[in-house]
Amino acid sequence: xxxxxxxxxxxxxxxxxxxxxxxxxxxxxxxxxxxxxxxxxxxxxxxxxxxxxxxxxxxxxxxxxxxxxxxxxxxxxxxxxxxxxxxxxxxxxxxxxxxxxxxxxxxxxxxxxxxxxxxxxxxxxxxxxxxxxxxxxxxxxxxxxxxxxxxxxxxxxxxxxxxxxxxxxxxxxxxxxxxxxxxxxxxxxxxxxxxxxxxxxxxxxxxxxxxxxxxxxxxxxxxxxxxxxxxxxxxxxxxxxxxxxxxxxxxxxxxxxxxxxxxxxxxxxxxxxxxxxxxxxxxxxxxxxxxxxxxxxxxxxxxxxxxxxxxxxxxxxxxxxxxxxxxxxxxxxxxxxxxxxxxxxxxxxxxxxxxxxxxxxxxxxxxxxxxxxxxxxxxxxxxxxxxxxxxxxxxxxxxxx
Length: 401
Description:
The protein has helices spanning 4-20, 22-58, 80-87, 122-127, 153-159, 209-216, 234-248, 261-304, 306-314, 319-356, 364-390, 394-399, and strands at residues 64-69, 92-97, 99-100, 105-107, 110-112, 116-120, 131-134, 148-152, 169-172, 175-183, 204-208, 223-228, 256-260. With 401 residues, it is an alpha+beta fold. Strands 3, 4, 5, 6, 7, 8, 9, 10 and 11 form a nine-stranded mixed sheet that branches. Strands 2-12-1-13 form a four-stranded antiparallel sheet.
């Protein structure tokens, strides 16, 4: 009968045998260490990358819609009145035109082609802009003839490396503009829909949208951001806006496109979840290899200790005791390797979080998966050698060389 004292003694024997074969035990654990470390680090890194990507994407405005107008031969874009009517649609909070101005910024006779110039209205700053210094553009600035602008911190560092940007002047489209505000780097705002490689790399300058229209020679707007009140109703809001815009272009379906950022975020979340599962599955192959290594070592150990097993059985050791001893050795190897793998995996995850630039958080689910995997590997792959050892005939075992 197996009792507590015998279980303790069996555990001590298992530990002793592992210590007596340190190098072989370490090499056996190495597969588990690599497997668990891979699972944890890959799952965590995918989580960090996902968080960073979704954070950047949602900074474009989760809960907002982007309306892009392609127009027809008869009508190019939307007018102020039409945008105002869109803002009256149920669940629409406000609308902000987006004018990508085809010009460069000039300061002290130096042309900065990598700074984007965007035309925006006051609603953009109310919903997205965090002003670090100065003020935002207001409705009073939207007449089309007031040369004021707001720059972001990237543009400030390029144009005014020594500071003192607020109140200074820059030339935009040949017109002298006074900087009235500086947008905080953490402010949320959509990009300028420009696909040029260098566009926006050195920051952005925001001017009143009507000023931008005049610079471009536009009479209508081809891009706008629509802010919604209730994100749970965003699909019906999209449908209502589509019906309205379609009516303005005589039912032409290909005259516009509405980008639903919330739907894109949900789709990206689904994809990254699948990616995490896939990478975790690939990393689990290393655990399988580690488990095979444990089984191989335990089978070799059974063969080497055949006479020991026979002697113990001849002295009255029950098969269950022999089986538990070898199973304990397998699980100890697996659990020790698993714990080392958890530490290494979290260390790799910490380094990756610093490289990616996101806050490090301990992924409890990844650790739990790694721990359970190591337990399962030790039990599953250690059972066959332990079962074989318990079934050895003591007379045959004592005769073994």
